[in-house]
Write a structure and sequence with these properties.
Blueprint: H1 2-12, H2 16-26, E1 45-52, H3 57-64, E2 67-74, H4 77-86, E3 93-97, E4 110-116, H5 118-123, H6 128-142, E5 143-152, H7 158-163
Parallel strand pairs: 1-2, 1-4, 2-3, 4-5
Length: 168
Amino acid sequence: ERADSAKEKLVGLGHPSYYDEIYAERALKSRYEWYCSLDDFLPKAMHFLMDSSASRAAEGVAATKKFKYVVGVDLTPELIKMLSKHHYDEKTLEYKVMDVTKLDFKDGFFDLAIDKATADSVRCGPLGIQGVKAMLKEAHRVLGPLGVYVMLTCHEDSKEKLFDNKLW
C-alpha cells in the first residue's frame, strides 16, 4: 500500500494540477525551493530561459539583474498568474504558460536555459523519457550556437537514457 502511494505521487509530478495545488496553497508567502538557488552560479548573458522550478519569484528577480531578458515558462497557469501579478513592474522579466516540448521562441534566441527538475516532472508524465527527449530537442533549438543548457535532476540514469551517448 505504501509503495502504491509513493508511485501515485511520482505520477502526479507529470501533471500541472499537482503543481497548481502546491502553488495555490503556498502562493508567494514563502520561497518554495525544489532544489538549490540559482543566484550563486548564474553567469552574465543576454537572454535567459527558465523552465518550471527555475521560474520561482525570487530567482526571477535575481536573474533580471544579470540578464537583458528573462523568461520563465511553466505548464501551470496558477503559478504563471501569481508570478506575473507579483512581478508586474519588472521590465526584463516575463512569465508564460508554455509546454517545454513545444517552445514558442525563435531558433537560437537564448544564451542560457536552466532546468530545475522539469525533466523529472516531464519524465513522470504520459510521454515519459520520450517527453524529456522532446524537451531537450526544443532546448537545443532555442539555444544559440554558444548557448548553455543546465539540467538539475534527481535521476542518476538520465545521461545515458536521454543522450544515447551522443552529443548534439
